[in-house]
UniProtKB/TrEMBL annotation:
Annotated catalytic residues: C125 (proton donor)
UniProt superkingdom: Bacteria
Similarity comment: family membership: Belongs to the EPSP synthase family. MurA subfamily.
Pfam families: EPSP_synthase
Source organism: Sulfurihydrogenibium yellowstonense SS-5
Entry binding sites for UDP-N-acetyl-alpha-D-glucosamine: R101, R130, P131, V132, D133, L134, D315, I337
Reaction(s) this enzyme catalyzes, per UniProt: phosphoenolpyruvate + UDP-N-acetyl-alpha-D-glucosamine = UDP-N-acetyl-3-O-(1-carboxyvinyl)-alpha-D-glucosamine + phosphate
Protein name: UDP-N-acetylglucosamine 1-carboxyvinyltransferase
HAMAP family hit by this protein: MurA
Keyword Cell cycle listed: yes
GO biological process annotation, one example: cell division
Pathway annotation from the record: Cell wall biogenesis; peptidoglycan biosynthesis
Binding of phosphoenolpyruvate, residues: K30, N31
Length: 430
């Protein structure tokens, strides 16, 4: 191999089998922070956001906002100010959109405030095709002219956007968020039917209302937005990450240590807790925001179907699949949101799992143990599943492609090392 062909990559090495004990603190939610940051485009005033997690995706969104002309200042720990007085570009370039699909969230606000935006087409990713047709159709209904050219979505609304009656054929989280932001500055009333109910959508509405938007119905499937001429600055704190909390819940149950989860958002995890109870995991409330995870000796098998909030989140599917490998019987998980979100199955099987995929259902047969192996982190939540699996496996697990993990889990190595996990990173040659 020529020297210049050698690429360096980081791997995560885990020594499994350690009993874990201590406190795991939940960070700010990535999927709330990203739309919160995009919403700062809607005003020329300064917006301050607190509790921003230190993650690759947040860095990518900062880069994108800087590219558009936003002035960003670090105020104190995890708190930043954002101010977009005059844009220096109207384009979300391919190199950033390619790293993070949520870059599409700048389309609605740019178009609503400036009447023009270009966003590279996100394209497919490892969990599925993930088109943005519903975002575009809704914006067109609000009067935008949209064309796709040279791999870019080019959207114009020179006279501003107009309120419209939007019916989403499919529930879409970022689609609802894009239209919520666009409609806040549109002329007249917008009604979003079949809107997403996710807590991150509600949190965005809360932030927009603090900026002066007129929104009702957030958290239901019908949101009504009366457009206003201008929005103003605000101070907003990002809500805790329910998916990180759910990931910790699984980890605590499987390692059977004494793990307390701090900043645990039980209000967003009701259904996940119901499923956990069925499996034999109990969430013991210690204080307003702290819980202790306890498990019964034998875990029971369950059948899970991923669905939109308030039902079971697709973003916890891979982690619960790892857990169910150790249940006392056969479980099934059906993935209804993304068509290709079982990439972690062959990787879990490399560690000793016995999982078979039949269409959109995974059949999980019980095994006694996992043994460490070399595995690949195929997407963000699959990476979390690999980390959990590595921590319970006998011996050493080497996880490749861990940049996915750093997209969405804040300082995960430090958090786990703190409770007794043996984890390190190494740079290896490809
Ligand atoms: C940044 C962020 O918040 N990401 C979350 C968001 O992604 P995201 O908002 O991208 O996911 P959507 O809710 O839009 O996707 C739901 C389904 O609708 C389809 N669809 C969506 C839009 C569209 O225009 N056309 C279309 O067909 C998607 O391919 C998918 O099958 O919600 C997902 C579902 O809870 C989560 O897994 C992601 O973590
Ligand atoms: C799929 C996820 O994120 P994104 O929509 O940014 O790809 C996720 O958070 O699990």
């Amino acid at each position: 191999m020529l020297k210049e062909d050698v690429k360096l990559r980081e791997v995560l090495i885990i020594e499994g089998g350690n009993r874990l004990e201590g406190v795991l603190e939940v960070s700010g939610a990535k999927n709330a922070a990203l739309p919160n940051m995009a919403a700062t485009i809607l005003t020329s005033d300064e917006v301050i956001i607190e509790n921003l997690p230190d993650l690759l995706d947040i860095d990518t969104m900062k880069k994108l906002l800087l590219e558009l002309g936003t002035e960003i200042n670090h105020i104190k720990d995890k708190t930043y100010s954002f101010k977009l007085a005059t844009p220096k570009s109207y384009t979300a370039p391919y190199d950033l959109v390619n790293k993070m699909r949520a870059s599409i969230l700048v389309l609605g606000p740019m178009l609503a405030r400036f009447g023009y935006a270009e966003v590279a087409l996100p394209g497919g990713c490892s969990i599925g095709a993930r088109p943005v047709d519903l975002h575009l159709k809704a914006l067109e209904k609000m009067g935008a002219q949209i064309k796709i050219e040279h791999g870019y979505i080019k959207a114009y609304a020179p006279k501003g956007l107009k309120g419209a009656h939007i019916f989403f054929d499919k529930i879409t989280v970022t689609g609802t968020e894009n239209i919520l932001m666009a409609a806040s500055l549109a002329e007249g009333q917008t009604i979003i039917e079949n809107a997403a109910l996710e807590p991150e959508v509600v949190d965005l509405a809360v932030m927009l209302k603090k900026m002066g938007a007129d929104i009702t119905g957030e958290g239901t499937n019908r949101i009504v937005i009366n457009g206003v001429k201008e929005l103003h600055g605000t101070y907003h704190k990002v809500i805790p990450d329910r998916i990180e909390a759910g990931t910790f819940l699984v980890l605590a149950a499987l390692t059977d240590g004494k793990i307390i989860i701090k900043n645990y958002p039980s209000q967003y995890l009701e259904y996940v807790e119901e499923i956990s109870n069925k499996i034999g995991i109990h969430i013991v409330k210690l204080s307003d925001n702290e819980v202790l995870i306890k498990r019964e000796e034998k875990l029971r098998p369950v059948n899970i179907e991923t669905k939109e909030y308030p039902l079971f989140p697709t973003d916890l599917q891979a982690q619960f699949m790892t857990l169910l490998c150790f249940a006392d019987g056969i479980s099934e998980i059906t993935e209804n949101i993304f068509e290709n979100r079982f990439m972690h199955v062959p990787e879990l099987n490399r560690l000793g799992a016995d999982i078979e995929i039949k269409g959109k259902t995974a059949i999980i047969r019980p095994v006694k143990k996992f043994t460490g192996a070399e595995v690949k982190a195929t997407d963000l939540r699959a990476s979390a599943a690999m980390v959990i699996a590595g921590l319970v496996a006998e011996g050493e697990t080497k996880i490749f492609s861990i940049y996915h993990l750093d997209r969405g889990y804040e300082h995960i190595d430090d958090k786990l090392i703190n409770i007794g996990a043996k984890i390190r990173r190494e740079i290896v040659e490809e």
